[in-house]
Design a protein that fits this description.
Elements lengths: L8 E2 L5 E2 L17 H29 L7 H7 L4 H18 L6 H23 E4 L10 E4 L19 H33 L1
Antiparallel strand pairs: 1-2, 3-4
Helix pairs in contact: 1-2, 1-3, 1-4, 1-5, 3-4, 4-5
Length: 199
């Protein structure tokens, strides 16, 4: 499952990055005001919340508790971190596919989980980033940088591990949406296969 946008990217050293979830290129131009970044961050995090909802649907499907008030949802949300939740869903999927080895969607499911896990790194950067204007740089503009309390902290903004402008964050939000769409399609295919199997 690969989002259709941005098949290749380059990192700040100009090296080609083959995966759509790789960190975007270091941008030369930021925003004149901070508000566009705030809006883009909100959009991206809202889209990722939809991805997380889809992942939770896989969990309740695989453990067989799809009712709206399923305690499985509470169990899912009690786990911190997207990577940990995806790992829990993967374990449930492995057990389910052992019960239904004839399901042709196994490879698609595990690839979808892998893609979600890869994208979660970009989500975390957005969620824990901070909007800043490097005052010691002539002609400086606003970017999203690693937060000061994260392990990626770098007081020299020109040496930061990443910086994003609003356009880049919006692109990631759109990529999250493509991931969500693919997940919904996949869970619908799983449910259809199960219905056909069970008659």
């Amino acid at each position: 499952m690969v989002a259709p946008s941005r098949l290749k990217r380059s990192d700040r050293r100009g090296e080609t990055m083959p995966n759509p979830w790789d960190r975007p290129a270091w941008p030369d131009h930021g925003e004149d005001e901070c508000e566009p970044i705030y809006l883009a961050v909100g959009h991206a995090l809202s889209q990722w919340a939809d991805v997380e909802e889809c992942i939770s649907d896989f969990f309740v499907f695989f453990i067989g508790q799809e009712e709206a008030d399923s305690p499985a949802i509470r169990a899912y949300t009690s786990i911190d971190g997207a990577r940990n939740r995806i790992g829990m869903v993967r374990s449930a999927a492995e057990a389910w596919f052992e019960r239904f080895p004839g399901c042709p969607l196994k490879e698609n499911v595990f690839e979808a989980f892998r893609v979600c896990q890869e994208w979660s790194a970009r989500r975390n950067e957005i969620a824990h980033g901070t909007t800043d204007l490097p005052v010691d740089t002539p002609g400086a503009t606003w970017f999203l940088y690693p937060g000061y309390l994260t392990k990626r902290r770098q007081t020299d903004r020109n040496k930061a591990e990443f910086r994003y402008n609003a356009k880049q964050i919006e692109q990631m939000a759109n990529d999250f949406e493509q991931v969500e769409i693919r997940l919904w399609q996949l869970i619908a295919s799983l449910r259809a296969w199960r219905r056909e199997l069970c008659g």
